[in-house]
Write a structure and sequence with these properties.
By secondary structure, the chain is an alpha+beta fold. Helix content is 16%, strand content 37%. It is built from 6 helices and 19 strands. Strands 6, 8, 9, 11, 14, 15, 16, 18 and 19 form a 9-stranded antiparallel sheet that branches. Strands 7-10-17-12-13 form a 5-stranded antiparallel sheet, with no helix packed on it. Strands 2-4-3 form a 3-stranded antiparallel sheet. It is globular and about 60 Å long. The two termini are 37 Å apart.
Length: 306
């Protein structure tokens, strides 16, 4: 999902979407999955030469990716959709001066528990061996690009740069996530619960453990029968409650989680032993999956005039 909080910076994206042909390309890729450029041209009834600048613009705006593969008729350009959802945050766009942002590596957790199937890996190699939780404490974990477990949790200390005269308006956290199944199972629900400062804010049901196609950023050496990519989710909490992808999921609000200026914010993601769907959890960092990011955090705030 693309989250837009600066309308001016998003102008190139809006321009990219202002074309019937480019919209049709996105619709085709969303419905059919990865397609060769020549097949897209045939579906649209235009030449490959006419389609080429449209494909380039979509790729330049990170809406699709392009990979070259050898086929029956030589080298082919295979197009894959990256982003299929967009959320425009008009309130943040108006107040974007009162915002700070930071990013946390997925291996930089401060606490964890993990039960097999489980493991973690850098972009170059596995850390230790799979299904042995003790490697979650390995110092190399800070380089992890993917972590996974069936039951357990990871907790992060989120930097809090608020000053004493500033009040939080919205805390927005984004991450790429999926379930964790032995191998790959597209239909593998999992109850993943989120906590802010030890307060349970919501539970989201992950639909599956995805691997139908290779992850865009997943290393080529990675086993094709293991997790390939996840879903980009946006967890936000404000005075109005807790939201996932802009949809309200609970009444827990900023006052309930007690964010104190200058005090780190605890973020915990958990699959509990007593969950209905114990389908595990996989987190993807910038070197794995379909999104070139770790855990992104954005705090919107206002001055305390009291």
């Amino acid at each position: 999902m693309i989250n837009i909080s600066d309308l001016t910076q998003a102008l190139p994206l809006f321009k990219c979407l202002g074309s019937d042909i480019r919209i049709s390309v996105l619709e085709l890729l969303s419905a059919n999955g990865p397609m060769a450029m020549k097949d897209i041209a045939e579906e649209l009834g235009i030449t490959a030469g006419s389609l080429s600048p449209h494909i380039k613009m979509l790729a330049d705006n990170n809406l699709i990716s392009i990979k070259f593969e050898t086929g029956k008729h030589g080298l082919q350009r295979i197009c894959t959709i990256i982003e299929d959802k967009m959320m425009i945050d008009f309130e943040a766009a108006v107040n974007n001066k009162n915002i700070y942002e930071t990013s946390i590596a997925i291996g930089l957790y401060s606490d964890y528990s993990a039960y097999p199937t489980c493991g973690l890996s850098t972009a170059e190699h596995l850390i230790g061996v799979v299904d042995d939780p003790k490697f979650f404490s390995d110092p190399e974990r800070i380089k992890a690009g993917i972590i996974w477990f069936t039951v357990g949790h990871v907790e992060y200390m989120v930097p809090n740069y608020l000053e004493d005269d500033q009040l939080p308006v919205e805390l927005l956290i984004s991450f790429e996530i999926s379930s964790e199944a032995p191998g790959i199972k597209e239909n593998w629900p999992s109850d993943i619960s989120f906590y802010i400062n030890n307060v349970p804010v919501c539970t989201w049901i992950s639909p599956g453990d995805f691997g139908k196609n290779p992850g865009i950023y997943t290393p080529s050496w990675w086993d094709p029968n293991w997790n390939q990519y996840g879903l980009l989710k946006f967890l936000s909490i404000s005075d109005n409650g807790t939201f996932i992808d802009g949809v309200k999921v609970s009444d827990v609000n900023l006052n309930d989680v007690n964010i104190i200026p200058g005090t780190p914010i605890k973020l915990k993601m958990e699959v509990a032993e007593d969950s209905i769907y114990k389908g595990g959890l996989t987190l993807f960092g910038s070197s794995f999956g379909n999104y070139n990011q770790d855990i992104k955090v954005r705090m919107q705030y206002k001055q305390n005039n009291s």
